[in-house]
Write a structure and sequence with these properties.
Number of strands: 17
CATH class of the largest domain: Alpha Beta
Structural class: alpha/beta
CATH architecture of the largest domain: Alpha-Beta Complex
Radius of gyration: 40 Å
Number of helices: 15
Number of domains: 3
Helix content: 40-55%
Shape: elongated
CATH superfamily of the largest domain: 2-enoyl-CoA Hydratase, Chain A, domain 1
């Protein structure tokens, strides 16, 4: 027993001493490393910036050897791009930006994000560049536009210097909208590696030394590393979908049509509820997107003209003008950001459908306005002829529409008498003779005489 206990203690000490030696595994290809991979495919928005920030934080807390951002983007918002760059520069884990798969691109804001990575990689058949900021003054930049251009130029120049990559190329992506394929970008030194797959990329960058934001030098151990994915959850996917200019435009248009129909033909409120929900969702998209003031004014004008069609329906002039303003709103709403534009394939058909729908809503409004008034309840009996049952003096009852009603008159009533309802007093029907008394008496006398006479041949 003592010998077994001693051997067990010795074994425990040997196991505990193993990790304390600090020696690395003899075989670096053993695949003991781990990397966290996120995929971003689409426009760079605040939703994407939050996702990348959370991904980097997860990689830091999880002790991953690297965080890989697989990128395919036409560009996006400048503020969101800078937020992602700041996240990468301040990361406590190496960040690898990988433009993939083949056919992908890192254009505009994506080019700058790729430049910011500790390792900039691309798959064959991809492209990078065209990071010129939008100049509001047109082709000839004014003073304000020149400031924007110089700021972007200095930004990428400093990033290229920090990452020891070709400064001239990245500056030209801003000043001349230069763009190059992966092969040329590698030859120029604008990126670090070209790899067709993620596995080959991790093998190629194994052993690379990178410097983190706090000055720590880290050697990548990524050959054969285990790959964990961190993709957008359902909620973020919905938010990213809503932050699409075309989707926001469609939601606003359809929501407006729902409100218009609710105003034209009020009912149980389905049109108003659906329209309100769609408009709220559209407003979220507009809140995170750079909306032009001119485009927003055109959008409001379209709404006013559509509403005018309800109150002054005719040949559809207001609806047609509203549809034109809706098209102009789609054109100008995101004009200042060429990476974010409403699809023409959706713009024109949507405006046509909404305009036609408003014309129909105007017709419904006219029909409802001039339709005869109908009521339900006791008031609908006024003017009708009913039969008195259970008469007692000037009061009695009548059975109408499956229910018993009290009746009252200013004269004596009798069972079976036909009376006309003239008014309503609470739940009592005020009645009068169905025909004038003189005519009624004459009719009674005629009936009495006819009973005593023989029919003539």
């Amino acid at each position: 027993m003592r010998a077994a206990a001693v051997l067990w203690l010795v074994g425990l000490l040997l196991v505990a001493a193993g990790p304390a030696s600090g020696q690395e595994p003899a075989d670096p290809e053993a695949g003991t490393g781990r990397v966290l991979v996120s995929t971003v495919a689409g426009v760079i928005t605040p939703v994407v910036a939050d996702h990348v920030r959370d991904g980097v934080r997860r990689a830091e807390r999880g002790g991953y050897d690297a965080y890989v951002l697989q990128l395919d983007t036409p560009g996006g918002l400048d503020d969101s791009m800078r937020a992602i760059v700041q996240t990468i520069l301040g990361a406590r884990v190496p960040v690898v930006v990988y433009v993939a798969p083949s056919g992908a691109r890192a254009a505009s804001a994506g080019s700058v994000i790729t430049l910011a990575g500790h390792v900039a990689a691309m798959a064959p058949g991809t492209a990078i560049g065209a990071a010129t900021p939008v100049l509001l003054g047109g082709d000839e930049p004014g003073a304000a536009d020149q400031k924007v251009l110089e700021d972007a130029k200095a930004y990428v120049e400093e990033l290229a210097t920090l990452r020891d990559r070709d400064v001239e190329f990245h500056v030209q992506t801003v000043t001349d909208a230069r763009s190059e394929p992966a092969r040329v970008a590698l030859e120029l030194g604008a990126i670090d590696v070209v790899a067709p797959t993620l596995g080959e990329l991790l093998d190629d960058i194994d052993g690379t030394e990178v410097t983190l934001g706090d000055g720590t030098v880290v050697t990548l151990r990524t050959a054969g590393a285990a790959v964990d994915t961190y993709d957008m959850g359902l909620f973020r996917q919905v938010l990213q979908w809503l932050a699409n200019p075309t989707v926001a435009f469609l939601l606003m248009s359809v929501g407006t049509l729902g409100i218009i129909y609710e105003l034209a033909s009020p009912g149980i409120g389905v049109g108003g509820i659906v329209g309100g929900v769609f408009i709220l969702l559209a407003l979220f998209g507009l809140a995170v997107l750079p909306v032009s003031a001119v485009g927003f004014i055109f959008l409001l004008l379209a709404l006013v003209l559509f509403a005018a069609e309800l109150f002054a329906p005719g040949i559809g002039v207001f609806a047609a003008l509203g549809a034109v303003c809706l098209v102009l709103a789609g054109v100008f709403l995101f004009r200042d950001t060429p990476d974010l534009q409403v699809s023409v394939a959706a713009l024109l058909p949507t405006a046509a459908v909404i305009g036609g729908g408003v014309v129909l809503a105007g017709r419904l409004a006219v029909r409802a306005r001039f339709a005869p008034v109908t009521t339900s309840g006791p008031g609908q009996f006024v003017g009708r002829t009913v039969t008195v049952e259970r008469a007692r003096g000037n009061a009695g009852q009548t059975f109408v529409e499956g229910a018993w009603w009290r009746v009252r008159a200013d004269h004596e009533l009798r069972d079976g008498q036909m009376v006309r309802v003239t008014d309503l007093d609470g739940l009592t029907l005020v009645v009068a003779p169905a025909q004038p008394p003189a005519i009624a008496a004459e009719s009674d006398q005629t009936a009495d005489r006819s009973e005593g006479e023989e029919p003539r041949p």
